[in-house]
Amino acid sequence: MEDSGAMGERDYDVAIVGAGFAGMYLLHRLRGLGLRARVIEAGGDVGGTWYWNRYPGARCDIESMQYSYQFDDALQQEWCWSQRYAAQPEILQYAQHVADRYDLRRDIQFNTRIKSARYDEAASRWTLEAEVGATIAARFCVMATGCLSVANWPRIEGLKSFAGPTYHTALWPHEPIDFTGQRVAVIGTGSSAIQSIPLIAEQAAELFVFQRTPNYAIPAHNAPLDAEYVKDFKANYAQIRAEAKQTPPGIYGRFRQGKAMEVTPAERQAEYERRWADGGLAFMGSYGDLMFSQESNDTVADFVRAKIREIVEDPELAQTLCPGNIIGGKRLCVDTNYFATFNRDNVHLIDVREQPIEAITATGVRAHGRNFAVDALVIATGFDAMTGALTNIDIHGRDGDGLRQRWAAGPSSYLGLAMADFPNLFTVTGPGSPSVFTNMIPTIEQHVDWIADCIAYMRAHDYTVIEAEPDAQAAWWDHVQDVAAAGLKTSTDSWYLGANVEGKARVFMPYYGGFPDYCRKCEEVVAGGYAGFALR
Ligand code: FAD
Ligand code: NAP
């Protein structure tokens, strides 16, 4: 086994790939168990999502008082968020503070991308190889590689021929980019575009937005946090966190159970108005059936379309910005001045749904038979979500089949935590977990705690190998599909289905049964002596 020394001491109890919120907390937990763990991270520092996504306007869409760790009350009491939705630099600072506070960096190898992971059955160990040739061996391997960590580049002819700078929102440069006086093209109208477009528009001389599918966005009403509100929140943190765990998305807030059609149109309108005024993702918590009944979904989608028509002055432009699909099929966006930005004279919307972008040229974007000349290109086309970071690594388990081959027709996993034939390999927020439908830091904590507790249990009971059983995995995966099919989610092309990546298998990946049901299942598995897992 080669070791360049770059990955440090070469044999560990646990190798962790990724130093986002998942890898960081996992390292902390494993150290607490007295285990030797090493984290390997492609980026230059901790933070994951918040290290890479530095585009203008990047911020969380779950309120910062909740989008934060809860594993240490002292940490959540001492950290002060400045705004309702913190911006990327502040969230990155928070991750860096956590790394400092728990002295994490000494066990993290940065600027190192893992290219393969192989299980040696005789030795019951994983060997991970980095792109630069260093290797690391460990009894357990945990992929904390993120659900949204592999940039998706559009397959548009000539993309590489553009002579000016090309920026992908998910790989944004570290130094601020000044678009003042420039002509800029943004391709995409998902969350990243919706956050960045208003700010780019303020700087650019001309901004051309290429929209394939219009999106729903709810106002953030972002604002500095009120000191009294924070004091009160912190005084009640334990109770708030506990209540959050009882809601489907794991978010503290008003999530109502009733059906939209059981109340009068006037009551519905008043409820939507109240929630629009409050802002944020809780908007979709107005009624319990919005993602299960087309009729109910229509009422809330109509409400948002009416708002778009109110905000956007030009009726034709407003119509082009109005989504036609259900609301909530794609991930709901939370915006600051997105629709109003299209009232600016320097902002131009190009609808490329019927007539796709023809090519990128050296000087701009060719669409509708003309060249839109620009100085800079912003690619906001999202991610190879949920599976991309895992299939990017050549992972081989007990037999010869690699994960890539196994997942060629779509992923399958037991609880989003482990896969049959891949012993001692865990995934944090893998496909089949609620992950992207929840407030992810608490979800990550739940996964990490489950994994750490499992390793501790194995040690206490002299087990060295754990592996998901194929039947348990198949049953869980069927359940994941059944739950998704019961609602409206699967009716829309989305990255949840892999529909955003050309050639990717179309399979619904996250678990839509809600955080409480998922946690219950995880607890039952443990109570049953790790039911559905083979322990040796
Ligand atoms: P990541 O933060 O993605 O970290 C994974 C790390 O693994 C990365 O640093 C990556 O470099 C590393 N890695 C991957 N492959 C390799 C490899 N082969 N070798 C070495 N290192 C590797 N969620 C919410 O709940 N609320 C929000 O408001 C929210 N906002 C978001 C905004 C944006 C712009 C994006 C993109 C996502 C957002 N998310 C949000 C989801 C977000 O990804 C999670 O909340 C969370 O940060 C994920 O943490 P993680 O550690 O699981 O993964
Ligand atoms: P995304 O939601 O997948 O959006 C990508 C956009 O690019 C879509 O509008 C897509 O159109 C468009 N697109 C892709 N290929 C194209 C092509 N060839 N031509 C024209 N348009 C093309 O990606 P994202 O905006 O980066 O967001 C991904 C996820 O990250 C979010 O859903 C969210 O979970 C998270 N995120 C959160 C926040 C936040 O507010 N906190 C911010 C950013 C990201 P189609 O819809 O037609 O495919």
Task: Characterize the structure shown.
This protein has helices at residues 21-32, 49-52, 73-78, 88-101, 191-203, 227-235, 237-244, 265-278, 294-311, 315-321, 338-341, 388-391, 403-406, 440-460, 470-486, 515-527; strands at residues 11-17, 37-40, 108-109, 114-120, 125-130, 135-143, 166-168, 183-187, 206-211, 217-219, 333-335, 347-351, 359-360, 364-367, 370-373, 376-379, 394-396, 425-427, 466-468, 533-535. By secondary structure, the chain is of the alpha/beta class. The strands form five sheets. Strands 1, 2, 3, 4, 5, 6, 17 and 18 form an eight-stranded mixed beta sheet that branches. It contains 16 helices and 20 strands. The radius of gyration is 23 Å and the shape is globular. The protein binds flavin-adenine dinucleotide and NADP nicotinamide-adenine-dinucleotide phosphate. NADP nicotinamide-adenine-dinucleotide phosphate (NAP) binds next to helix 5. Flavin-adenine dinucleotide (FAD) binds at residues 17-23, 40-43, 48-49, 51, 53, 58, 60-62, 67, 113-114, 144-149, 192, 389, 392-393, 428-429, 439-440, 444.
Quick summary of this structure?
The protein has 3 domains: 4-150 and 384-535, FAD/NAD(P)-binding domain, CATH 3.50.50; 151-215 and 330-382, FAD/NAD(P)-binding domain, CATH 3.50.50.60; 254-315, no CATH class. Helices cover 31% and strands 16% of the residues. It is built from 16 helices and 20 strands.
Straight-line distance between termini? 26 Å
Which structural class is indicated by helix and strand composition? alpha/beta
**What hetero molecules are bound to the protein chains?**
flavin-adenine dinucleotide, NADP nicotinamide-adenine-dinucleotide phosphate
The tally of strands reads 20
How many H/I helical runs? 16
Q: On the 0-100 scale, what is the average pLDDT?
A: 96
Please describe the biggest sheet, giving its number of strands, its sense, and whether it closes into a barrel: 8 strands, mixed
Uncertain spans: 1-5
